[in-house]
Each structure stands twice: as structure tokens, then as C-alpha cells.
Amino acid sequence: MAPWPELENAQPDPNKYMEGDTSQQSATPGKGKDTSQNDSGTPVTKIELLPSYSTVALIEEPTAVEDPWDLPELRDTGIKWSERDTKGKILCVFQGIGKFILLLAFLYFFVCSLDVLSSAFQLVGGKVAGQFFSNNSIMSNPVAGLVIGVLVTVLVQSSSTSSSIIVSMVASSLLTVRAAIPIIMGANIGTSVTNTIVALMQAGDRSEFRRAFAGATVHDFFNWLSVLVLLPLEAATHYLEILTNLVVETFNFKNGEDAPALLKVITDPFTKLIIQLDKKVINQIAMNDEAAKNKSLIKIWCETFTNVTQMNVTVPSPENCTSPSLCWSDGSYTWTIKNVTYKENIAKCQHIFVNSSLPDVAVGIILLLASLLVLCGCLIMIVKLLGSVLRGQVAVVIKKTLNTDFPFPFAWLTGYLAILVGAGMTFIVQSSSVFTSAMTPLIGIGVITIERAYPLTLGSNIGTTTTAILAALASPGNTLRSSLQIALCHFFFNISGILLWYPIPFTRLPIRLAKGLGNISAEYRWFAIFYLIFFFFLTPLAVFGLSLAGWPVLVGVGAPIILVILLVVVLRFLQSRYPRILPRKLQSWDFLPLWMHSLKPWDELIFLLTGCCQTRCCFCCRVCCRACCLLCGCPACCRCSGCCRILEEEQDTPIKAPKAFDNMAMSTEAQDGVPRSQVDGPDTEVTSSSTAL
After folding, report:
1. 49: alpha, beta or left, given left = phi > 0 and alpha = psi -120 to 50?
2. Three-state secondary structure call for residue 127
3. 308: Cβ–Cβ under 8 A, 6 or more apart, which residues?
4. Burial class of 639 by CB neighbour count within 10 A (0 to 12, 13 to 18, 19+)
5. I need a labelling partner for 334 at 20 to 30 A (CA). Which of 113, 249, 307, 442 fits?
């Protein structure tokens, strides 16, 4: 509805009078008339001309549909710098410095909570992950290897840990490079689950959640689509194995230094006070070491001394001696000299669980809950601080810097520069999960667009592989070749994916798929949790279970499902592009039951199941609920959201209407008890938004 013209502080204008003879007007002056005399003494009535109102304003105008993916304007609602006095300017500077320090502090604890979260997942599922690798009978199946890589990386929350296990198995000849490549692809998928979990923390605001979840899942779709194309290609041609073997043989690599752990230097002093793990136990379980299955992952002794001494030992026969010169017999026993390694514990670790008698799973659950709580709190505060800092001109400058392309004809280079920036930042922080998780809230509040976040994420994928290459160059001589070839496989896999899904704008399917999933998740927020559980837990577990039954069972169950999915995709494409070539019944999904082509029935079911969480609270606690909503933006499942909706429904939007339409509106009073007519002027009234035309 078009707004009424403003009549605020309306005053009579002497130029808006029309003179007329009193003979033609009524003798009694009415409202809006002023009687005076002209030069000849004849009484003249001055009639005030009221503003005219077009009837076009009464017609419902079509409103422009807003694009939900447009970046919001972060307006500066505070006092302008030029309007502040000296004291206000000094206070503003100190506030800015304080906010910056707080932002760095919360970012530090955010990164530390991610590290503790990874340790918690390893405590809960590390031994299970090692047992996945110990089953060598199904490793020759590429699909099984793929889902094992996904499951292990999700369980330990670290692609570096799963990659190091694979390198150890290849170096020990328990696994071939050909069988390890699908596992590396699965590890690439599993590492993207961290920023998806971080995006769930922004579910309080629908628009922020739409952008944040799309920005997080663009990484998922890139990895899934790359595997969908490159895994069958690798199984048919083995191009990654051949290419990496050629690179390793061509260049004479020597042992080098490990990658600089810049971020670990900052976070380790704090995280090592919480928990320290002995990651060798997972490797030993993967190597089928039975003794390691009873060991704890919690590190007890941080400083040990290993001493190698020569001792006289008995052997069954002279053939078991180390050498003929070091072998003798005293009649009943045969003796020889052997080197015996003796390990002495010197100093215990200083973390809080060093003397705990709790099992690994219990400690892992405690750390999991605590790290998720800290992660959520830090993320909320980071978003709030960024929202208060990135306002006005600062927001404009940052948005233009991050989202503006180079001038023509070099605009196409901007994305490739973003890939290099993402790779460099990931190399600095030594973790793609940390970089993409820190970028997720920036996407949510509207600082970075999805189109710009996509190449940054691709660069992050490359950055984490360069770190693995440098780590491989620092490996011992016996594992140098295998670890380097595995790291190069990871590198060339990501390069191949970028060549598939980035250079041509038409092929950037991950952006469109992520936006579609973002729209669905913003409408039905429970679908985000369903997506996370289904694609990263249930589907890999189901495929792994079918792989244990053998190839015939996997193909017999998987082939019909894949055919149905392909049929749905083709039919959906024809419905959107060429509906006329389809029969009338197939031009839409209405021939199916509603629950098969719409999420609305499922949403109603979930609403019924979680209805107890959405009970509206009493009037006396609405003030507290309102404060909660303003601080953190309560999700729909929170009790406070009901109070917020009640308050929003009770607030009416003031619409000013002239008295000419007094019979078409109902007057209301202001919330503070003062009638609107006394505030807005004598010729205006305020109507409720629900009763105006």
C-alpha cells in the first residue's frame, strides 16, 4: 500500500488562498476560511486550498521482490564523527580499540575450541576410525575406501590425522597408493563438515543463516561433485597414480623442513593445558597392533628418556645369535648380545585430565560439549562485534575491497587472485577448517558474497595440500616417497576439481546448489541438521555396510537408487526448461503424494514433535525474553522466540492519514498513552497497519 502524504507540522500558507465574492459563498465562514476586506471595502472570503490526494495511492501497488542473496546494508546508526566533541571522539577511539582486542580474543578462543573439538572427536571415535583402516579386505573397493575416508575424517575432525594414517599404512606396505587415493578423496569431503557445524550456530537469524549455510556448504558441493566425476575417472584410468608417480620419479626430492606451524605456536600453550593426545595409538590400531587397542589416547608422560643398552640374552639356538662372534654356550643355554631399548618416564603432562581415571569416551564427551559451548558463544560474540564494527563507511570500504572485481578486461582475474589468497591464508593458519570456519560468520553477516567465498574456499583446499606436501618432505627416508605421492594425489585431485567447476561460469554448479540448499534451510531450519547427519554419517555408514557384504550386494542396492536419482534430476530439468515435451501429468510433481515432493508435511510433523519447545511463556517474563532475542537472536525452537513473536505482533506501524478518510480508518493511541493526534498535528490521525486500506 502506498503511504499517505506527510502532513506533519502543517501550517497555513498565505499563498494558498483563493479569493471569492461573498455573494457566491455562504455567509457563515466555515473551517478553512478567513474573511477580510479588499481595497474597495467589499468583504472577501479567503479559502485555504488543502493539498490534493491522488486516488492512485489507494490502489495496491506491486512491490518489488527482494533478492534474499543481496548483501544487507550495515548502516551506522550512531553519532557521526563530525558531530562528536573531543571527549566523545576519544571515547569512540578507545571503544574501537577495545572492540578490536575483544574480537581478537574471541577469535583466539574460537580457534582453540576448534582444536579441542578435534581432540574430543578423536577421543570418542579415534579407535573406531583406526579399526576402519585395519579392515584391509575391503580397501580394494574404491567406493568403500571413499566412505571410509569420509567417516574417519568426520570422526577425528582432521584431514591431517587421516592423511598421516594413510601415509603410515602405505609406507608399511599395508596399503597401495592405488587403494589410498579414494580414501584421500573421502578425507577431502570429511574435512568440510567443520564449517557446516559452525554455520548451524547462526540459525537465530533467517537471512544470516541462509547466507552462512550456503557459504559453508559450497565447500561440500564442490567436494561431492569432484568425487562424482573424478572417482570413476581414477578407477578407469588411474591418472592420479600415474601422474604423481611421474612427478616423484622426475624430481629428486630430498628431506626438508616441516611446514612452519604459525598458528599452533599461538594456540598450543592454551590447548595443551586442556588435553593432549597420543596420536600414535590410532596409527598402531590401523596397523593391526593388538596391544594398542587397550591403550588410552590421553597422553600421560610428556617427557621420556629412551636408553639403548647391550645386554646378554638367551636364544633357542646358535642360529638366532646376532653374529657368530657374539654367541657362546654354557652347556644348557645359548647366549648372545642384543641391543635392548629401555624407556624411562621423566615428567608428566600438565593438562587437566592427566590424573583422571575416566575412560576416553567420557573425557571426549565432556570436551565435546564444552568445546561446542565455547564455539557457539565465541561465534555469537564475533558476529555481534563484527556487526557493530562493520558499519557505515567502514563496511562500504571492506565490502568493496572484498567483493569488487578488477576493471575490464581483467575482471576474470579476480577469482584466481581470491584462490591464491585462500591458499596463502590456509598455509599460514595450517588448517583449511579454521580458515573456512572463520570465514563463515563473515558470509552470514553479509561482508563476503557467496560468489567471492567460493574461490577463497577452493584456494583453502589447495593451501591444505601444500602444507601436506611440506610435511611429506620432512618425513624420514623410508616414508618419503609414499607420503609425498599421497600428498601430491591430494593436490592434483583439488586442482582437477577446480578445473572442472570454476574456470567457466556456467560450470560453477556448487554456488547454485549451495544457494538452493540455503533457501531450503532458511525456510525449514531442521533440514540443515538432517543434511548434516544424512550426507556425512548415514550415507557413508550405509555404503560401508553394503561394502562389507561384497560387490554384488553393493551394486544390487546402489544401482537402482542411482538410476532413480538420475531420473528425478532429468525430469526436474525438463520440467524447468522444456515442460511442453512432457505429458501433462509429468509437467509437475503433483501426481505424487504431498510428502514425497514437499517438505511442508515433514515440517508439520517436526513441529508437532518439538511443540513442547515452542510453548509461549507468560507475560511477566517477556522483558527477559526480549532482551535474550535482541542479544542472540533466538531460533524458532527456543521458548523466547514465542515471546518475541507476540511482541512483534502487538506493535503496530503508524500510518498517517488525512481527515478526509476519517470514515475509513480507526484511530489508535501511542504506546506511551499520549494520543497520536496530539503528537502529529491537528489534521492527521494514526491508523493501525491492520485496518488501513
Report:
1. beta
2. helix
3. 339, 340, 341, 342
4. middle
5. 307
In three-state secondary structure terms, 408 is: coil
Task: Return the pLDDT at 42.
Answer: 53
Angle at 533 between CA 532 and CA 537, to 5 degrees: 115
Contact in structure between 518 and 217 (CB atoms under 8 Å): yes
Q: Which residue has the higher pLDDT, 431 or 682?
A: 431
pLDDT in tens, 299-322: 888 877 777 777 777 777 776 676
Q: Is the dihedral of CA 583, 588, 592, 597 positive or negative?
A: positive
User: What integer is the mean pLDDT of 182-199?
Assistant: 87
Q: Can you tell me the mean pLDDT for 149-162?
A: 79
| pLDDT of residue 6 exceeding 50 | no
Model confidence pLDDT, tens digit, residues 235-264: 899 999 999 988 888 876 665 555 555 667
| CA nearest to 351, candidates 275, 402, 298, 424 | 275
Interior angle at CA 457, CA 452 and CA 460, nearest 5: 135
187 grid coordinates? 578425507
Task: Give CA 250 to chain center in angstroms.
Answer: 40
pTM above 0.70, yes or no: no
Residue 424 has, within 13 A of its CA and on its CB side, a CA count of 6
Q: Are 470 and 160 in contact (CB under 8 A)?
A: no
Q: What is the pLDDT of residue 33?
A: 46
Q: How many CA atoms lie within 13 A of 487 on its CB side?
A: 24
> Does residue 221 have a pLDDT over 90?
yes
Determine how many CB atoms are found less than 10 A away from the CB of residue 397: 11
Question: Across 1-10, 502-511, 652-661, which has the greatest mean pLDDT?
Answer: 502-511
CA distance 602 to 596: 10
DSSP-based three-state secondary structure for 546: helix
Close Cβ partners of 553 (under 8 Å, ≥ 6 residues apart):
546
486 close to 166: Cβ distance less than 8 angstroms: yes
Query: Which residues is 20 bridged to in the sheet?
Result: 45
Taken in order 684, 686, 689, 690, is the CA torsion positive or negative?
A: negative
**Gap between the Cα atoms of 163 and 432, Å rounded:** 14
pLDDT at 134: 65
Average pLDDT over all residues of the chain = 74
Taking alpha carbons only, the member of 127, 426, 469, 140 closest to residue 295 is: 127
- 3-state secondary structure string across 266-320: HHHHHHCCCCCECCHHHHHHHCCCHHHHHCCCECCEEEEEEEEEEEEEEECCHHH
| Mean local confidence (pLDDT), 372-389 | 79
**Nearest alpha-carbon partner for 444 in 490, 380, 508, 503:** 380
CA contacts within 13 A on the Cβ side of 147:
20
What is the residue-wise DSSP string for 33-96? Answer: EEEEE-TT--EEEEEE-PPP--GGGGSPPPPPPPPTTSPPP----S--GGG--HHHHHHHHHHH
Grid cell listed for 419? 584462490
pLDDT of 412-468, one tens digit each? 888 899 999 888 888 877 778 888 888 888 888 888 889 889 999 999 989 888 777
> Among residues 367, 607, 615, 456, which one has the least CA distance to residue 625?
615
Cα–Cα distance, 248 to 242 (Å, whole number):
10
Q: Which helix (H) or strand (E) holds 469?
A: helix 450-473
The pLDDT of residue 625 is 54
